[in-house]
């Protein structure tokens, strides 16, 4: 029986309030309105950013809401005016939308489409309303990052999803909705790492590993992975790192940053490219200052805690180091993700290897716990 035009009742993991476990219960999902698409979400990865927002630290975190932004699924129905996808299409959801019309999309300078960004940050659809209602309490629920993939059905803007080859297994390609694309893209599209260069990456989670993978593809000659978890050494090397440093093994120095001094010493003056994939503002400073004078570029990917700020001596920048950031790896999702999926299908792009854990929706809280255990790169939740 067709569900088109009807409200669907399904299971979703609701974040009722900050710092409380998610609650898997029934929600009503209204049909898509003009320019919107309703998607049956099949799989979602759990990203550190979901945990960050659930902790209450995200200035854009609104409760009660349905979190999740690393998802794949199948288009169930479309609203008026939707042209690029149709029911039955396999899609990846995009927290970085791409409208191809706004000043940002047409600038040729950024992937940060602004078509739906303001309402996305407020947890509502572009028309200012919500599509989710709790079946238990009748309360409306906020959307999250324009995607809300912790629900069996979600409604998104037509700019916040992309159809991909249906041969691609969604239980892995969901990771292209955030972590894998973010790290790889930061290395390849944002930093544009040059062949034979030296690279250091802090944080060997999914994002950092994908940076290492991108750096290797770009022909970097040294890829130094840095993580306090010794178990990450093997992971880092599998994804292309040539060396591993545990910050705990670098002896402290008086009146300076021991890691900066160590890295500058072993790289003849500093790194060509560094990346923060931890969200730690002290790491961000170290990563900048470990860059080579005159040309080193440091890219911030990690999401820092609410209210935190970065600092360094301006002299670090005056003397030629550059500080920049990267969101979703600089990737324009609707334009570029189908190509990345095709490369994956041709065996030219790693995705499967990041999946270490799997859980059903009913155990999504256990999935979030895996993320703190030190062995988890990505946990994929099955929403079926
Ligand atoms: P993760 O938690 O899986 O991995 C983080 C790694 O950093 C862990 O291995 C941890 O041991 C290590 N680490 C923590 N503190 C460290 C320190 N001081 N020095 C060295 N290593 C340290 O996280 P993830 O999913 O890979 O995400 C990484 C960061 O990127 C998070 O902050 C996340 O919110 C952010 N993120 C940003 C974007 C973006 O578009 N900018 C996209 C996805 C994720
Ligand atoms: N909402 C937060 C910022 C969170 C943040 O930095 N998000 C990253 C993506 S993290 C994905 O795991 C991002 O891409 N930001 C750019 C954007 O447009 O959201 C805050 O501080 O308000
Ligand atoms: Zn994410």
From TrEMBL:
Q: Name one GO cellular component term.
A: cytosol
PROSITE patterns assigned: ADH_ZINC (PS00059)
**Could you name the domain of life of the organism this protein comes from?**
Eukaryota
EC numbers listed for it are 1.1.1.284
Q: What GO biological process terms does the UniProt entry carry, in alphabetical order? A: formaldehyde catabolic process
Q: Which reactions does this protein catalyse?
A: a primary alcohol + NAD(+) = an aldehyde + NADH + H(+); S-(hydroxymethyl)glutathione + NADP(+) = S-formylglutathione + NADPH + H(+); S-(hydroxymethyl)glutathione + NAD(+) = S-formylglutathione + NADH + H(+); S-nitrosoglutathione + NADH + H(+) = S-(hydroxysulfenamide)glutathione + NAD(+)
NCBIfam families associated with the record: adh_III_F_hyde
What this protein is called in its record is: S-(hydroxymethyl)glutathione dehydrogenase
């Amino acid at each position: 029986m067709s569900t088109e035009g009807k409200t669907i009742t399904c299971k979703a993991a609701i974040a009722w309030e900050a710092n409380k476990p998610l609650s898997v219960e029934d929600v009503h999902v209204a049909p898509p309105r003009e320019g919107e698409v309703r998607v049956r979400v099949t799989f979602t990865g759990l990203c550190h950013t979901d945990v960050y927002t659930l902790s209450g630290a995200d200035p854009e975190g609104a409760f009660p809401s349905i979190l999740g932004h690393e998802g794949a699924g199948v288009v169930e129905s479309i609203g008026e005016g939707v042209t690029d996808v149709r029911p039955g299409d396999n899609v990846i959801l995009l927290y970085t939308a791409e409208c191809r019309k706004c000043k940002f999309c047409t600038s040729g300078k950024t992937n940060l489409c602004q078509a739906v960004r303001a309402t996305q940050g407020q947890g509502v659809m572009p028309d200012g309303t919500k599509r989710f209602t709790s079946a238990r309490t009748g309360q409306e629920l906020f959307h999250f990052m324009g995607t809300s993939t912790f629900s069996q059905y979600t409604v998104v803007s037509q700019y916040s999803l992309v159809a991909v080859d249906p041969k691609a297994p969604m239980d892995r390609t969901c990771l292209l909705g955030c972590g894998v694309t973010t790290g790889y893209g930061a290395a390849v599209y944002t930093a544009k790492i040059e062949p034979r260069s030296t690279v250091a990456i802090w944080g060997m989670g999914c994002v950092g590993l994908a940076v290492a993978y991108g750096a290797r593809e770009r022909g970097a000659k040294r890829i130094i992975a840095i993580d306090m978890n010794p178990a990450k050494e093997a992971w880092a090397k599998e994804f292309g790192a040539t060396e591993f440093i545990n910050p705990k093994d670098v002896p402290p120095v008086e009146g300076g940053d021991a890691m900066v001094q160590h890295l500058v010493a072993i790289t003849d003056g500093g790194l060509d490219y560094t990346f923060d994939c931890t969200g730690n503002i002290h790491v961000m400073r170290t990563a900048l200052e470990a860059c080579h004078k005159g040309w080193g570029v440091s890219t911030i990917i990690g999401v820092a805690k609410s209210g935190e700020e970065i600092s360094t001596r301006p002299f670090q920048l005056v003397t030629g180091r550059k500080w920049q950031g990267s969101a979703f790896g600089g990737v324009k999702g609707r334009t570029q993700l189908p190509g990345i999926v095709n490369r994956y299908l041709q065996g030219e792009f790693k995705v499967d290897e990041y999946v270490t854990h799997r859980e059903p929706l009913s155990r999504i809280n256990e999935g979030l716990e895996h993320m703190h255990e030190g062995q988890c790169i990505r946990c994929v939740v099955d929403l079926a």
